[in-house]
Amino acid sequence: MAPMGIRLSPLGVAVFCLLGVGVIYHLYAGVISSRLAAFRQRRKVDLRDLLAVSVEAAILGGKEVKKVREENGLNEKSKGKTREGASELLTMGDLRSHRKMFNLLRNTFPEVKVNSEEHDDTVDKTITWSRLIPGDILDKIDGGKDISPESLTVWIDPLDATQEYTENLVKYVTTMVCVAVEGKPVIGVIHQPFTDFTAWAFVGHGSNMHSRSSYSAPPSKVIVSRSHSGHVQSYVREAFGNSTSIIEAGGAGYKVLSLLEMPSTEAGSVDQADLYVHITFIKKWDICAGAALLNAQGGHMTTLKGEDIDYSGTAINKGGLVASVGVDHKAILQKLPTWDPEKH
Question: Is 159 known to sit in a ligand binding site?
Answer without folding.
Answer: yes
